[in-house]
Amino acid sequence: MLKPVKILTKMYDVPEGWTLRAYERAGGYQAARKALGMPQATVVDETKKANIRGRGGAGFPAGVKWGFMKPDPARPAYLTVNADEGEPGTFKDRTLMEKDPHRCVEGCIIASYAIGAHVCYIYVRDELHLSKERRLKPPFPAQRGLFGCPTTVNNLETIAAVPSVIEMGGEAFSKLSSLHHLNDGGCRLFGVSGHVKKPGIYEACVGLTLRELIYDLGGGMSNGELLGVIPGGSSCPVLVPSEIVSAPDEKSVLHPWHGKSVLDVPRGVDTFRNLGTMLGTCCAIVFSDKTCPVAVMQNLMSFYRHESCGQCTPCREGVGWIDRIVTKLLEGTASIQEVDQIHDIGNGIMGNTICAFGEGAAMPALGLVRKFRRHFEEHAAGTPCRAEGRLQA
Ligand SMILES: Cc1cc2nc3c(=O)[nH]c(=O)nc-3n(C[C@H](O)[C@H](O)[C@H](O)COP(=O)(O)O)c2cc1C
Ligand code: SF4
Hints:
Layout: H1 20-25, H2 30-36, H3 40-49, H4 62-67, E1 78-83, H5 92-99, H6 101-115, E2 119-124, H7 129-133, E3 151-155, H8 156-168, H9 170-174, E4 187-194, E5 200-205, H10 210-217, E6 226-230, H11 269-274, E7 283-288, H12 293-307, H13 313-331, H14 336-349, H15 357-371, H16 373-381
Parallel strand pairs: 1-2, 1-3, 4-7
Antiparallel strand pairs: 4-5, 6-7
Helix pairs in contact: 2-6, 2-8, 3-6, 5-6, 6-8, 12-13, 12-15, 13-14, 13-15, 14-15
The structure holds flavin mononucleotide and iron/sulfur cluster (SF4).
């Protein structure tokens, strides 16, 4: 059920809400004062109880990650906050930095205290000029991270949730979520872009469904009927509205939604993993039946090809190869055998790269070619494409 909240976004509509004066007037920095009066271990415990699953994409519990940091008087420790958002479709952290930068700073203070960090860095991409104005990837980092010292890496939204955890108490924060029982707690920022009437960032309790995101918060489809949705940033395999949950086993995480549309499954880290996709950054890309899925794939693959650092062969060569095949399909010069090759190349990338980027490129390719096979075959057969639009992430 749609449960809108205004916790992370409570300053978004306040005039000059990004200033220190406005933030303090709204009770800002009280949570930091409270946290600094608590034992460090209690702050970590409250964060564990809050069940904040990392908002950067992997969904690892923030409190558990903080527990890995062990004090070492011989070396400084660091908190690094990832606000990069390089992935197409993901644009939530930017709103926090622009509209409520002090919540981010307060979260950094509390998190640094909890893990014993001496210095905190926020990594912001160079293009975000407004975010940089309002304040200024490392390796298993809890032992040897930044400058070879113990480091915790968190997403910016994960950190921005922490003042509310201290304010409300971890358990109360977690229970905002309809997936509290799956250790997936609190509220979070949901993004929606593409063919919806009201693209943007919306705050809601964890457990919001794709149907609620697209039709209630996003205002419904803007151009045609829903054809597919990439649920959490471009790396997540696509879902199509005709997919029905099959989970007859009562022990399955998805059993409560057995027989229902995937659009009605609450958005959580484990529910979406069990659907064969990912929650990722929770920022959905929606495309209508006026869009060609082959063009969607080409849009994504040209991005991944450009971004690959080239260090490992499966990613460097594989992503480029898929991009070339998809470009040929759009030009009408690829064969059906080359469509099949996309499966082989994608599977060859999976599990064979140094970092998760390669899989982040292969997973959407494999998902698109599997679920929209007919469209790929039509392009290979030279059938004129009926779609008029491209995916605008
Ligand atoms: C290719 C790639 C790109 C990533 N981009 C981001 C990003 O832009 N922002 C982010 O917070 N995490 C990103 N991550 C995940 C981070 O590596 C890291 O897991 C995350 O920041 C941890 O924070 P969390 O546990 O609070 O989610 C990326 C991971 C990969 C493999
Ligand atoms: S998988 Fe990572 S390390 Fe390997 S080439 Fe791609 S981006 Fe570089």
